[in-house]
Amino acid sequence: MIEANIIVITLISIALLISILRFIFAEEIYTKILATNLIGTKIVLLILLSGTLSIEKDFTDIALVYALINFISTIVILKYYEDKEKYQ
After folding, report:
1. What pLDDT, on a 0 to 100 scale, did the predictor assign at position 44?
2. Please, are residues 70 and 37 in contact by the beta-carbon 8 Å criterion?
3. pTM listed for this prediction
4. Residue 84: what pLDDT?
5. Is the dihedral of CA 60, 62, 65, 67 positive or negative?
6. Which domain holds residue 63?
7. CB-based contacts of 77, cutoff 8 Å, min separation 6
8. For the packed helices 29-53 and 58-86, what is the interaxial angle rounded to 10 degrees?
9. Cβ atoms of 53 and 1 closer than 8 Å
10. How many domains would you assign to the chain?
11. Centroid of chain to Cα 18
């Protein structure tokens, strides 16, 4: 079971690096915002998988709070850019 978790953590870490590269090389702002949201989602998965390897149960709470902050920040940033484009 632990070996499977380590393999999954490695695969998600590789996917996270690919998402970071997608963020760096993206030209449109909406692609960058979606890449940022994707990075946040993968970090939540990594936190939850790290919690399965650990004895402490606090990782689930931390992951839920981080997911909520990720969601709210994405909505706020999209609203900011929508208003910015409307008034230009």
Report:
1. 94
2. yes
3. 0.84
4. 79
5. negative
6. 2-86
7. 33, 36
8. 180
9. no
10. 1
11. 12
